[in-house]
Design goal:
By secondary structure, the protein is an alpha+beta fold. The chain is built from 6 helices and 4 strands.
Length: about 120
């Protein structure tokens, strides 16, 4: 019989100990990946109004009044991408439904940040 792997973190004698099992490292990798993606979207949208993929598709994100979006707007929009990605039957189905039902074709992040996607 195998001994189960226990992932744990504890604080003893003034030192914080974190286990380094495969499961905890995978979790850490997921967190790092999420932060990198969040940073990428926030940086590019805040600076240029577009990601590299949006540049290829010739679309960009602007404020509802047509003004350039800032990094805070980009962060709000990017954080709420998680809600649109909640998989029910098909990943991003919720985001697609919100876009289809919006007169400005906005997903959750666009609605919260008061942004729209337009042709570049």
């Amino acid at each position: 019989m195998q001994t189960p792997v226990v992932n744990s973190a504890n604080f003893t004698n003034g030192t914080f100990h974190i286990s380094t099992t495969a499961n905890s490292l995978a979790g850490l990798g997921s967190i790092i990946t999420t932060l990198i993606v969040l940073f990428y979207f926030t940086l590019f949208l805040g600076a240029y109004g577009q990601t590299v993929g949006m540049m290829v598709l010739k679309i960009k994100v602007v404020k509802e009044d047509g003004a350039k979006i800032g990094h805070v707007d980009a962060l709000v929009r990017s954080l709420l991408l998680i809600i649109d990605a909640i998989p029910f039957i098909i990943p991003f189905l919720l985001g697609a439904i919100l876009i289809w039902t919006s007169d400005k074709r906005q997903r959750t992040g666009d609605r919260a940040a008061h942004t729209v996607v337009v042709k570049a």
